[in-house]
Amino acid sequence: MNSYCGRLSVFPTKNWMAQVSAGRITQPERQAEGDVVRTTAFLHYSRPMADGNSWSTSLNWGRNHDTETKHDRNSYLLETVYPATKKDFLTGRVEIVGKDELFANDPALEHRLEHTAGSTFQIQAYTLGYTRDIGTFWNVETGIGGNVSAYAIPSAIKPFYGDHPWGANIYLRLWLKRDK
User: CA-CA distance, 18 to 126, in Å (whole number)?
Assistant: First the structure.
């Protein structure tokens, strides 16, 4: 065993949950030297609704420390899922992530950007979504939905990603049915 981790979870009430974890990942990228020490913290709240669903919100933090470069990359996430009706769910998500490998396939560009803009870029993503439950077939709960995301990026990388990057996806959700 060359990697290890530990986790502590606390449930102070039936609606709240907190968790802290840390671990060391030995050489996670085969081509790159160094290990990663990962630390995370998580706070989650669920509010039961009258129809049997729950409005759930999570706040997450994570840090990767690269033992070779000595860089720390932090990430933050706030997300929520709100059951508008028994079958309709609205979602929202805000992410802030430090990225340092965006130009790893072009070392000359990566080196030039590192000297002018730093080695880590703060990327922000804002996502809104909707899911509609369709029904249960052969013990599988199904739903269909979509998300739209807009990104805020540093000006140094806008020539490569555009001034207003965004994305959208449509998906089919399949879950094994929960026993009640």
Answer: 24
* Residue range 23-45, pLDDT digits in tens: 988 877 776 777 888 999 999 99
18: exposed, middle or buried (C-beta count within 10 Å: 0-12, 13-18, 19+)?
middle
C-alpha closest to that of 102 among 135, 151, 61: 151
CATH fold for the domain made of 4-176: Porin (2.40.160)
Alpha-carbon distance 97 to 74, whole Å? 6
Q: Indicate the residue type of 147.
A: N
Domain boundaries defined on the chain: 4-176
CB-based contact 139:176 (threshold 8 Å): yes
- Please write the tens of the pLDDT for every residue from 127-139: 999 999 998 888 8
The structure tokens listed for 30 are: 């085969």
Determine the Cα–Cα distance for residues 159 and 142; give it in Å rounded to an integer.
40
Q: Which residue has 């049997």 as its token pair?
A: 52
The CA distance from 120 to 32, in Å, is 17
Distance CA 169, CA 25 (A): 32
